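Why does this matter for the project? Reviewers at the last site visit asked to see concrete outputs rather than summary tables. In response, this paragraph embeds two records directly. Each consists of the residue sequence and, immediately after it, the corresponding structure tokens. Nothing has been edited or filtered.
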Amino acid sequence: MTQNLTLSLAATSVAALLAAAPTLAQADATVAFLMPDQASTRYEEHDHPGFVAAMSELCPDCTVIYQNANADATLQQQQFNSVIAQGAEVIVLNPVDSSAGAAMVSIAQSQGVRVIAYDRPIPDNVADFYVSFDNEGIGFAIAESLVEHMEASGIPAGSGVLQINGSPTDAAAGLIRDGIHRALRASDYETLAEFDTPDWAPPRAQEWTAGQITRFGDQITGIVAANDGTGGGAIAALKAAGADPLPPVTGNDATIAALQLIIAGDQYNTISKPSEIVAAAAAEVAVAFLQGEDPEATTELYDTPSQLFVPAVVTRENIKAEIFDAGIQQPETVCTSEYVAACRELGIVD
């Protein structure tokens, strides 16, 4: 997969995207922003506010309709039909089920409505555009980082790793899985077991991990989890089983809970991907479509013109620079009472 756009500071990147965007001539347009679930807190906390903020800059008089399907594909179909009925001319769609998303693309395009696939691709049909982070690159990066850490820690070749993937109905989860496979197969470590987590639900990841702990015990020397929620579920299972020390566990999304786990030493890595950057890019693409223009693509995925952003891996060693010095999170938000000492140790707070 082509890795074409590297993230720097979130504010700088978003500002650059907006500064380069055209001014909207059509002032009464309606754009819909449809997100898949609330288990991943990023959609409510970052993606939606970021998209609204960007649209308010690019098209102050446009109407933005926001809906979250709460992991219900049937509900998302109803929401999709509703926003078309409300006159949406562009729909930014992050599908609960990527296969169901293909049918939505056909419905929209038959009515002249443009669809921007967002975060999760739609492999079975060609959307008008795709905006996301490089999901296969993310999977490869978190797994490669874990492998390098295990090697540096002296964990011997042939030791066992668990792999916790995302939802089986999410094509982005499949890309992350493929990236993890690529990194682990190039390593000297053995994959003990692998799990596709329904709806990315942390309790399901925790339940599965608990079963693997019973099955494999001390053979588990690392866990590659596809996001922070599933990683947090794995960590909860390890702690409940009395594992000490914890094997290194990966993540992805840089949620506040994951950052706290990394600071405490319970989680090894995550991915910093300020969702506002992708949200701003989606707003820019939407505005171009409303103007009758073809937005600029930097690559192609599933035959769809695309923009893919390459995020940074965050560990305890670089969390201060990547998260706090970059302004992605504030120390007072993350370094709450039980984490103050560890934050002080890392130089995050005085």
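We now turn to the second protein, recorded in exactly the same manner.
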Amino acid sequence: MNKKIGIVFVALIIIAIWLHWGNTSIQSTYINIHSEKIPDNFNGFTIVQVSDLHNASFGNRQADLLEDIKSASPDIIAVTGDLIDSNRTDLAKAMKFINGAIKIAPVYYVTGNHEARSHRYGELRRQMIEAGVTILDDESIPVKRDTDVIHLLGVNDPNVADPDNMTGNARQMDEKLKTIVSNDKDYMVLLSHRPELFGAYLKNDIDLILSGHAHGGQVRLPFIGGLVAPDQGLFPKYSQGLYERKNTKMVVSRGLGNSIIPLRVNNRPELVIITLKIYQ
């Protein structure tokens, strides 16, 4: 009996260590995006995507996270929502990350559903702007390299305009994008928190979407994938990685932090490094 108890005890310790490592050890995922529309001067242009931090900490003053970002040598850093958590908002912790990130590369940001629900987002927004972050409020801006240009688009989370709309709305997103997309001849990168609205992005011929929100399905099952995701339910269609349809590609980050469900299983926090590549 004592031997069996000892085996169970050791097994529990191993599981606890594995879960701790799986929730605190960042995985850097590298994705190359090829397109004939990418201008020559943007060949090798690198975007580090940070999503769903939810006020999580990775090292003292986010040192571990910032070091991983710095090692990727990004041209820009894209924050795709839920930097804070509306259930335990800590603006100081969020700004420690922002103030460190802005020293590495220009930071572009769009809201997630947790910013939309937080009464402190206005103050966070003010502090980010003062720090030098570009907040994309349903708009498109050009990014230039020598004589070439791509367009960086950003949309607010649907909850910003309608806090009671918990699932988002494909029709509303479609209408919003129609007012933002002005020139589909240039390469377009869209920052949008919600992957479940892929149909609206596809309809507007967006070239590349960077999204999050799904938390990788929270629990990832071998040969199956994510178990559950916000606004997608069980076995979500879009939980992590690269999705392609026609000429539209969407990258869904597993994100870094947690919210309502405190633990990830087989689903490490993720930093996504996207590199634009021209066809040779």
